[in-house]
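Notes taken during the Thursday session

The instructor put the following on the board and asked us to keep it in front of us for the whole hour. The protein is 3-hydroxybutyrate dehydrogenase. We were told not to look anything up and to reason only from what is written here. First, the residues (264 in total):
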Amino acid sequence: MTSKMLNGKTALVTGSTSGIGLGIARSLAAQGANILFNGFGDAGQIEALHNGVAQEFGIKTAYHNADMSKPAEIEAMMKFADERFGGVDVLVNNAGIQHVANVEDFPVDRWDAIIAINLSSAFHTTRLALPGMKKKNWGRVINIASVHGLVGSAGKSAYVAAKHGIVGFTKVTALENAHSGVTCNAICPGWVLTPLVQKQVDDRAAREGTSVEQAKKALLSEKQPSGEFVTPEELGALAVFFCSPAADQVRGVAWNMDGGWAAQ
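Then, after some discussion, the predicted structure tokens were revealed:
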């Protein structure tokens, strides 16, 4: 059996039962990493998913259902990772939710939930993962920000604030660990066709009385010059690069994969 880059290492990917998180988890599993899945969904489907990934890539997998808005549940998940796998070597902070409304109409509970899940959860997982990484003098913290960590869009105040926050948190974490083998970087995707974005596409098609295909094109043409969605597999390949020796000196970057969105 050929040695894979992440053999013997463990990756925790939050929000990994679908979409971007699942794409990244699969890419890391293909490099030999054991995977701790986290996210919501049907218990039977989740079990089938993580067992299927274990079988496909010949690795160990587990699942923890921590609610990423609750620090105590995050602590329980990190403790579980220590007990099951001896810690987390690659931490991918991906869990996220979205709500669209103007500032004066934004529901306060939605603001609080978005900040908790999209920003504060990354602080909690990272603070708990770092001691183990520093002890081994190797670790990768990969924060899934968004192109909205670099630019704004109307109606998305909480999301944009959280994602800008993630980019800032990434820089500080990278600087604090600059003299170690622990790196921290952010990936800033543009439109990715995840269940979250599909819902926005469907809502738009219903609102404008167009086909789903037309709604997709309209959504992309507004922001993403390539006119193509970013794929979870492309984001997974970038996460793998961040884990590679070639990225040892890639520290504190916010790397946008956005079809040209932020270049405009």
